[in-house]
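In response to the reviewer comment on reproducibility (Comment 2.3), we provide here a single inverse folding case reported in full, input and output, so that an independent group could reproduce the run without further information from us. The C-alpha cells appear first.
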C-alpha cells in the first residue's frame, strides 16, 4: 500500500457505531443525520493500473495506460444481507485530450461472500471528460444474500488511443452504512420550471422518498447539465438542471436509488418543433441524414466529428430554438438532397411532411453496387453501448449504401445479435437485408502486427459454429494461414489501411500491412488493396500494378459505431460491378476480377470498349475509354477534374474550372507495352474516386505467379527406428483446418528437398502420434522481415520500396527448415 494514502484517508477509519460520519470540510452530507462508517484504515487500500497521489486533503487518481480500468480498492469490511451502503465523494476530473467522451471516472461498491469472491458490483454514474468544479458523486447498494463483506472502489479509464495525463481529484471519500432498511418509494416533481427566456436557464427537481438519509439519488437527463447525484436528507433531495444558451427542448430526467426509479419530463416553453412524417427512396421507406443549421450552428448528431448530422428513420421530430433554420435531408450521393428554410416559433411546430428523394444517377440499374466491408459495430472504446447491427443498417442506408459488411456484432454482453451457428447468422442477415439492400457478415481478419485484412463473400455450412469457432487448429494460425482458410470458404480478401501508423507516448504503433510482400506477391493470397485512407496508398497501389500484380482497388471506412469520433459506414465506399445482381458471392467475384471503383466523394463509372475495370486487352492497339462522373448529392462537392490515370500520375485530364455537377468524357488509350495499365480518376473539391485498372498484355507475356520454394527439410532428435511409419505431409493451409487441402504425403527422411508453394505448411507426423510443423514463411526468413517492417524502424518506407518485395521473393525461392524432436 502506498503510504500517502494513510495521510489522505485515515480519517475514514472510524469505529463502527461512531456518531460522526461527515469528514471535516464536507458539505455534501452536512444536512444528513448520522450514519455509521465501516471502513478500515486506508493504508491497506489496493492500487491497480492507476497512480495515486496525496494533496493535503485531496486524493489525485490517474490512469497511466489505455483501455484498462485503473482501480483503487478499499479493504473489505463486514456486511450482512439486506444492509444498505452508500459510497460518496466530491470529485473534479481533468483530461488532456479533445475527445472528452473517451475518459470516465466513477465509484463502485463491491460485495463479497465468505470465499472473498465478488458476488455483486454496483457502479455510480460516470463523470465523463473534464469537470472543472467539484461535483458530488456516489451510489447506494443493498447487500445481497451471499454478502459477508463490502468494499469501495475508485475507478478511472482512458479509452483514447493516446495516453494522456487524465485523472481525477477526490475530496471526502466515504463509505457509509445507512441507518434503516431500503425504502420502496421514489417520487419526483418539478419545483421550478424552465422559463421561455433566452440565455442560461435552470429547472429544479425535487425528490421525496422513504429511503433512509444518506441514500444516493442517481440523476440522468437527456438535455442540459444535471448533477450526477443528490443525497437524501430528511426524506427529500433537490437537484438543479442547468441549460446553456444553446440548450432548447424538453428534458427527460431519470432518477433512481438502487433499483427504484422515477422518470420526469421537464417541458420547455421556449421550444418549437420540427418533424418529418415519412421519407422514401426508389419507392421504399428509408433512413436519412438530417442537418439542421442556423448560421454556423448545427444541431449535433452522435457522429458529428466525422459525419455531421442526425441519423434517423422517419417519422421523426426534434425541438429547436425559435428562429430561422435551414434543414437539409439526404440519402447518400446518388440522390438529390431535400433542402428547406423554416421559421420556428416557440410553442409551434413545422411539419415537413413526406420527402421523396430524386435520383441523380441509378448505379444499381447499371450493375454497380456501393458498399462498405470494413466495419465494427463495437470497435473497443464502448463509449456508446446501445448500438447494434440494426444501427449499422440504418446508418448505411442513410448514407446511400447498397450493401454493408458488419463484424463484431456483439461484444462484452452489449449489442447483438449473438448467433451460435452460421445458420442463425444467415437468418439474421436475411432479416436485415431488404429490397435494394444487402446485409452481410464480414470481419477484419486476420488482424495482427503483420496487418489487418478485410474480406467479403465468405460462405459456411449452416451447421458450422459461427465466427471463428469452426477453425479446429491445434496451434494458432499464422496470418497467411488465416487468409488461406478465408479464401477456401469463397471469400475475396483485401489488405486494410496498408500504410497506417502513429506514435503514442514516443512509441511507434503499427496498423500497417507489414505482410504485404509475402501475402500478395509471394503467396498470392490478397485480391485487393484498400487505397482510401492515406494519399500514399495510391503510390503503393501503382507500384504493385507496375510490377504486374493485378490487385483490385478496394476501400472500407473502418467504421466503429461505439465512439463519437468513429467514421460511419460509407464515409469511404467500394462499388462492385455485379451485372447479374447483388449477392455476397457476386461482390467477392467482383473484387477478385478487379471490377471495382473506390470513392471518397464523387460517383464514377468507366468502361473500355464496353468492358468494366479489370478487363485485359491486347497491347499495340488504341482503345476508347468512356467515363461518367457525378458530384455527390448529399454534399456540396462539385467535380474539378476527370483524369486518365496511369503509373501514379494523370496522363490525360478534362478540367472543370468552374466546377461541374456531372461529366461524360471519352479518353483514348494506347498501351505502351506488356502489362501496361490505366485507370480513371474523378477529382472533386473535397474528394476523389478511382476505378480499378484496365490492363493490356501481349500473347507471350506471363504475369507474376506465387512463388514455388525449393525447401530442404532436416529432422533432428529422432532415432533411426522413429522414421519407420513416419510421414511428411504438405498442406495448402494449416493442417486439418477446415478448407485446407493435403497436397502430398511421402515417407519421412532425415533430410529431403521438396518444391512447395511459399504458402505451404509441412507437417511431420510420427507413428507414435508426435507431430511438428514447419512453414516456408518462417524457414525462409520472410516472417522475420515482416516483423522488422512491423517494428517500424523505417515507418512505411519498406512497403513503398520495391527492393523489399524483391528480397521477400528471393528468400522464398529457396529455404531450409529444421524440425527438432
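Designed residues, in position order:
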Amino acid at each position: 500500500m502506498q503510504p500517502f494514502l494513510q495521510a489522505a484517508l485515515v480519517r475514514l477509519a472510524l469505529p463502527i457505531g461512531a456518531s460522526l460520519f461527515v469528514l471535516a470540510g464536507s458539505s455534501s452530507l452536512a444536512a444528513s443525520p448520522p450514519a455509521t462508517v465501516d471502513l478500515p484504515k486506508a493504508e491497506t487500500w489496493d492500487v491497480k493500473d492507476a497512480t495515486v497521489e496525496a494533496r493535503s486533503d485531496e486524493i489525485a487518481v490517474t490512469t497511466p495506460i489505455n483501455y484498462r480500468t485503473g482501480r483503487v480498492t478499499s479493504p473489505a469490511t463486514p456486511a450482512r444481507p439486506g444492509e444498505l451502503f452508500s459510497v460518496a465523494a466530491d470529485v473534479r476530473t481533468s483530461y488532456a485530450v479533445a475527445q472528452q467522451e473517451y475518459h470516465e471516472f466513477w465509484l463502485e461498491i463491491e460485495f463479497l461472500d465468505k470465499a472473498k469472491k465478488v458476488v455483486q458490483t454496483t457502479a455510480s454514474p460516470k463523470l465523463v471528460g473534464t469537470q472543472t468544479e467539484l461535483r458530488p458523486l456516489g451510489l447506494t447498494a443493498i447487500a445481497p444474500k451471499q454478502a459477508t463483506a463490502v468494499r469501495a472502489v475508485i475507478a478511472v479509464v482512458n479509452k483514447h488511443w493516446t495516453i494522456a495525463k487524465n485523472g481525477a481529484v477526490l475530496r471526502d471519500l466515504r463509505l457509509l452504512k445507512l441507518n434503516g432498511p431500503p425504502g420502496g418509494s421514489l417520487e419526483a416533481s418539478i419545483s421550478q420550471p424552465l422559463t421561455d427566456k433566452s440565455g442560461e436557464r435552470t429547472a429544479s427537481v425535487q425528490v421525496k422518498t422513504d429511503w433512509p438519509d444518506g441514500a444516493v439519488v442517481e440523476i440522468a437527463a437527456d438535455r442540459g447539465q444535471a448533477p450526477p447525484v443528490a443525497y437524501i436528507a430528511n426524506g427529500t433531495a433537490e437537484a438543479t438542471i442547468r441549460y446553456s444558451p444553446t440548450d432548447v427542448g424538453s428534458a427527460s430526467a431519470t432518477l433512481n436509488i438502487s433499483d427504484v426509479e422515477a422518470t420526469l419530463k421537464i417541458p420547455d416553453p421556449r421550444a418549437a418543433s420540427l418533424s418529418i412524417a415519412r421519407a422514401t427512396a426508389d419507392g421504399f421507406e428509408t433512413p436519412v441524414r438530417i442537418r439542421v443549421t442556423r448560421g454556423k450552428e448545427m444541431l449535433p448528431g452522435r457522429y458529428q466529428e466525422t459525419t455531421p448530422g442526425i441519423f434517423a428513420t422517419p417519422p421523426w421530430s426534434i425541438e429547436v430554438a425559435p428562429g430561422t433554420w435551414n434543414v437539409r435531408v439526404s440519402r447518400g450521393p446518388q440522390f438529390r438532397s431535400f433542402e428547406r428554410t423554416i421559421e420556428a416559433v416557440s410553442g409551434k411546430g413545422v411539419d415537413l411532411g413526406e420527402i421523396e428523394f430524386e435520383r441523380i444517377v441509378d448505379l444499381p440499374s447499371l450493375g454497380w453496387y456501393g458498399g462498405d466491408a470494413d466495419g465494427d459495430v463495437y470497435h473497443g472504446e464502448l463509449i456508446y453501448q446501445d448500438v447494434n447491427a440494426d444501427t449499422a443498417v440504418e446508418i448505411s442506408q442513410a448514407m446511400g449504401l447498397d450493401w454493408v459488411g458488419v463484424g463484431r456484432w456483439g461484444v462484452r454482453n452489449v449489442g447483438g445479435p449473438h448467433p451460435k451457428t452460421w445458420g442463425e447468422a444467415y437468418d439474421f442477415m436475411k432479416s436485415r437485408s431488404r429490397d435494394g439492400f444487402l446485409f452481410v457478415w464480414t470481419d477484419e481478419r486476420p488482424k495482427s502486427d503483420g496487418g489487418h485484412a478485410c474480406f467479403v463473400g465468405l460462405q459456411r455450412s449452416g451447421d458450422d459454429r459461427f465466427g471463428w469457432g469452426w477453425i479446429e487448429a491445434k496451434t494458432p494460425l499464422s496470418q497467411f494461414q488465416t487468409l488461406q482458410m478465408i479464401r477456401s470458404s469463397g471469400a475475396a480478401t483485401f489488405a486494410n489501411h496498408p500504410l497506417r501508423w502513429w506514435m503514442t507516448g514516443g512509441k511507434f504503433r503499427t496498423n500497417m500491412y507489414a505482410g504485404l510482400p509475402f501475402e500478395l506477391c509471394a503467396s498470392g493470397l490478397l485480391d485487393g488493396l484498400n487505397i482510401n485512407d492515406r494519399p500514399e496508398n495510391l503510390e503503393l497501389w501503382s507500384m504493385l500494378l507496375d510490377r504486374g500484380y493485378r490487385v483490385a482497388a478496394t476501400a472500407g471506412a473502418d467504421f466503429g459505431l461505439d465512439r463519437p469520433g468513429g467514421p460511419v459506414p460509407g464515409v469511404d465506399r467500394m462499388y462492385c460491378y455485379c451485372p447479374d445482381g447483388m449477392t455476397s458471392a457476386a461482390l467477392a467475384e467482383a473484387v477478385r476480377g478487379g471490377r471495382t471503383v473506390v470513392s471518397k466523394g464523387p460517383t464514377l463509372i468507366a468502361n473500355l470498349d464496353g468492358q468494366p475495370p479489370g478487363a485485359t486487352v491486347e497491347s499495340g492497339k488504341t482503345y476508347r475509354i468512356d467515363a461518367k462522373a457525378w458530384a455527390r448529392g448529399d454534399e456540396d462537392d462539385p467535380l474539378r477534374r476527370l483524369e486518365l490515370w496511369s503509373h501514379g500520375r494523370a496522363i490525360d485530364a478534362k478540367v472543370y474550372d468552374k466546377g461541374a455537377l456531372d461529366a461524360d468524357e471519352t479518353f483514348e488509350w494506347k498501351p505502351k507495352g506488356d502489362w501496361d495499365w490505366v485507370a480513371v480518376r474523378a477529382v472533386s473539391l473535397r474528394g476523389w474516386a478511382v476505378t480499378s485498372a484496365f490492363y493490356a498484355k501481349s500473347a507471350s507475356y506471363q504475369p507474376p505467379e506465387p512463388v514455388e520454394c525449393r525447401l530442404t527439410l532436416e529432422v533432428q532428435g529422432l532415432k533411426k527406428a522413429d522414421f519407420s511409419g513416419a510421414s511428411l505431409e504438405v498442406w495448402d493451409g494449416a493442417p486439418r483446418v477446415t478448407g485446407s487441402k493435403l497436397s502430398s504425403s511421402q515417407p519421412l527422411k532425415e533430410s529431403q528437398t521438396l518444391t512447395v508453394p511459399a504458402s505451404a505448411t509441412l507437417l511431420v507426423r510420427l507413428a507414435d502420434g508426435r507431430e511438428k510443423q514447419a512453414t516456408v514463411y518462417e524457414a525462409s526468413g520472410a516472417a522475420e522481415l515482416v516483423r522488422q517492417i512491423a517494428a517500424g524502424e523505417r515507418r512505411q518506407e519498406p512497403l513503398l520500396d520495391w527492393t523489399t518485395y524483391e528480397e521477400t521473393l528471393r528468400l522464398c525461392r529457396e529455404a531450409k527448415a529444421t524440425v527438432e524432436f
